[in-house]
Amino acid sequence: MGDSVNVGDVLIKGIMEGKYTEPRKVHSLGSVEAEVIYGKTKEINFKEEIYKETGKKEIKYEVNYKNNKIKLYKNNSKFNDYKTESNCKKIKISKNFYLPISITKITNIELIKNTQNHSLDEAINIATKELSEELEKEIPNLENIVDKKIETIQGKNSVIVTLKYIIREEIGENKKN
């Protein structure tokens, strides 16, 4: 108990040494359980900028001929902050015959920027929730969780949160020499 091991360390070996005899090979079989630590770290700013869609959209079109784009609109978006979605459709003449021309529909969706301030506790809770979701996807045996540790380092504008899950697992691997 209390020892740490690295990948590849031999834990059970089939060699018996006697007081009056030379070392000799014997059959060895065993299982090794250990507490394995899975961990992740995340930094959360106390001041966070969040972009939300307003519902306003503008639609523009482009014609693409080989490598040339012909814009069917005059100027860029009228929105200050926006995200762009584009959908390109090739022009089809028959079932399997396409012209070298395509039409791209460009949709600009307006975004509004909100600033959200978090307290220290809120930032820690946000990071812990996100880290838990990430770790639980990676851990093979969630039912074998022994302990959960949260470590925090508070900075001027953010907090760094480290979440560690301690899992009891069988780590032994049978090998023949």
Structure characterization notes:
This protein has 177 residues and is mainly beta. It has one helix and nine strands. The protein is elongated and about 95 Å long.
Order of helices and strands: EEEEEEEHEE
Q: Helix/strand/pairing class, anyone? A: mainly beta
Low-confidence region ranges: none
Shape descriptor? elongated
Biggest sheet details = 4 strands, antiparallel
Rg from Cα: 30 Å
Count of separate DSSP helical elements? 1
CATH class of the largest domain reads Alpha Beta
N- and C-termini, Cα separation: 27 Å
- How much helicity do the residues have? 10-25%
**How many domains comprise the coordinates?**
2
Number of strands: 9
List keywords for this structure.
mainly beta; Dodecin subunit-like; 9 strands; elongated; three-stranded antiparallel sheet; 1 helix; 177 residues
How would the blueprint of this fold be written?
Elements: E1 15-16, E2 24-25, E3 33-45, E4 47-65, E5 68-71, E6 82-94, E7 97-117, H1 120-138, E8 145-154, E9 158-170
Antiparallel strand pairs: 1-2, 3-9, 4-5, 4-7, 6-7, 8-9
